[in-house]
C-alpha cells in the first residue's frame, strides 16, 4: 500500500493482523520499519500498520523537509490512507518521540499511546552523556568490535557494506543478551536500506532546540489520553530520563522489563506482548 502525503511523497506502508488499529512508528531518525516481530506478536490483538518514514527505507526518497511537524503530518497521512478515525500508536526510540508529538497535536485521533524506549521530555543533557558512557562501556566488553566501530566511524565515506557493518556493530550494544547481540543486530539490518543521514542530523538538531521546555511539560500534563510507557531495564539510555514524562502525564502506566535492552520485544517477547495487548484492551 502506498499512502501519499499532502506534498506528494509516497510512503511505504503495510497492514496485518486483526482487531482495533495500531500504527507503529519506527526509530531513527533516518531508519526504517523493523517491526516484523512486533506485528507477529500482536497479530491476534490488533490490526498492525507499519510504515517507513519520509525519505527512509522503502518510502520515496526526497529532500525532506525533516521536521517533527512534517513527520506528524506524514503520520496523519498514513492514518487517513487506512480510513482510521482514531487509532492506537506505538512508537519506539525516536518513534516514541514522534508518536508523543502526534498525540499532543491530535489527541482526539489517538485511543492509546504506547511509548517504548524513549528518552523522556527533558533536554539531551538528561540522558545523552550517560548514554555515550554506557555505549562505550558495553563496547568495551568486546574490544575488537569497539576498535572496528571506531575505525569505521572515523572515515569520511563508507561503502554500503561498511555502513551496514558500522550500524550492526553499534546496534549490537542495544541488547542485554551479549551472546546473541551481534546476530540480533545483523537480523535488524536485513534487509539493509541505508541510514538517511540528512534526516537523522536535522531531526536530532531540532530535538536539541525544542525538547525540554516548560511548554512541552505543560502540554503533556494536559494530555487526556492513556499512555503506557515500556522500558527495558538494561537500555543504555538511562531510564531515569523517562521519569520526566511519567511525572507529567495524568493517565500513565509504566512497565519495565528486567534483562531487556533497547528492544524489549526481542528479549522479552511474552512480557512485551502481554503489556501492549493489555493497553490496547
From TrEMBL:
Residues 21-268 form the AB hydrolase-1 domain. Keywords: Hydrolase. GO terms for cellular component: membrane. GO terms for molecular function: aminopeptidase activity. The keyword Manganese does not apply. GO terms for biological process: proteolysis. Gene3D superfamilies: alpha/beta hydrolase. InterPro entries: AB_hydrolase_1, AB_hydrolase_fold, AB_hydrolase_sf, Peptidase_S33. Pfam families: Abhydrolase_1. Belongs to the peptidase S33 family. This is Alpha/beta hydrolase. It comes from Streptomyces griseoruber.
Amino acid at each position: 500500500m502506498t499512502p501519499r502525503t499532502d506534498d506528494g511523497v509516497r510512503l511505504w506502508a503495510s497492514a496485518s493482523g486483526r482487531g482495533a488499529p495500531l500504527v507503529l512508528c519506527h526509530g531513527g531518525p533516518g531508519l526504517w520499519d523493523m517491526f516484523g516481530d512486533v506485528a507477529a506478536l500482536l497479530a491476534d490483538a490488533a490490526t498492525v500498520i507499519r510504515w517507513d518514514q519520509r525519505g527512509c527505507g522503502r518510502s520515496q526518497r526526497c529532500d525532506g523537509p525533516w521536521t517533527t511537524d512534517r513527520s506528524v503530518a506524514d503520520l496523519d497521512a498514513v492514518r487517513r490512507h487506512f480510513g482510521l478515525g482514531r487509532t492506537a500508536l506505538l512508537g519506539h526510540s525516536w518513534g516514541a518521540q514522534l508518536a508523543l508529538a502526534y498525540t499532543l497535536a491530535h489527541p482526539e485521533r489517538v485511543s492509546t499511546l504506547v511509548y517504548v524506549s524513549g528518552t523522556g521530555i527533558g533536554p539531551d543533557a538528561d540522558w545523552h552523556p550517560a548514554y555515550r558512557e554506557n555505549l562505550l562501556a558495553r563496547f568495551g566488553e568486546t574490544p575488537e568490535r569497539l576498535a572496528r566501530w571506531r575505525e569505521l566511524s572515523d572515515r569520511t565515506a563508507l561503502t554500503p557494506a561498511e555502513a551496514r557493518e558500522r550500524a550492526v556493530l553499534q546496534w549490537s550494544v542495544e541488547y542485554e543478551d551479549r551472546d546473541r547481540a551481534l546476530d540480533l543486530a545483523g537480523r535488524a539490518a536485513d534487509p539493509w536500506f541505508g541510514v538517511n543521514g540528512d534526516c537523522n542530523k536535522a531531526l536530532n538538531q531540532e530535538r536539541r532546540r525544542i525538547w525540554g521546555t516548560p511548554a512541552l511539560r505543560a502540554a503533556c500534563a494536559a494530555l487526556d489520553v492513556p499512555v503506557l510507557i515500556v522500558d527495558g531495564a538494561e537500555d543504555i539510555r538511562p531510564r531515569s530520563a523517562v521519569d520526566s514524562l511519567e511525572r507529567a502525564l495524568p493517565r500513565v502506566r509504566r512497565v519495565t522489563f528486567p534483562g531487556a535492552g533497547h528492544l524489549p520485544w526481542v528479549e522479552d517477547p511474552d512480557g512485551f506482548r502481554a503489556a501492549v495487548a493489555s493497553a490496547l484492551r
